[in-house]
Design brief:
By secondary structure, this protein is of the alpha+beta class. The chain contains four helices and ten strands; from the N terminus they run ββαβββαβββαβαβ. Helices cover 19% and strands 38% of the residues.
Amino acid sequence: MFKILNKKVLHENILQFTLEAPLIARKAEPGQFVVLRVNEYGERVPLIIVDFDREKGTIDIIFMVIGASTTVLASLNAGDSILDLVGPLGKKTDIRPDMGTVVCIGGGIGVAPIYPIARKMKQVGNHVITIMGAKNKDILKDEMEKISDEVIVTKCERKAPKFIYGDISSLKNNDSIS
């Protein structure tokens, strides 16, 4: 069992948990993830390790409530426990001090995976530019400002663009799409 130490609501359906996981925290690197199972009935859910503290033995995960398992996960509070947590998994991101200027791009919940990468890039001496897109609240904006040399935030106030599927021959002669 893995204890939830802190629960933070980042937006109406986006949450951040700090979990007690000393073995995972000890080996975690930017770009890696965990797979968790809330209870014996839950499915396995892969989630990026957003932050880790080797000394405290903790990891942070951020997730969006979009299905049954994440709904159950969101119902838990600090002091509750998660049944299974496996990790760190996946190949760590290649981070070297000689990379120069690094641009990290993410939007919405997609900012979560770039945060640990941008932080480590800065720690080893690279110049970090972060570009974030958001529909409403800026997920991790304050944190990204602390670890980036420059942060550019774009707001998307319109619905997603239309996509056309099928034969593109109708688009010849620069016909407009509505």
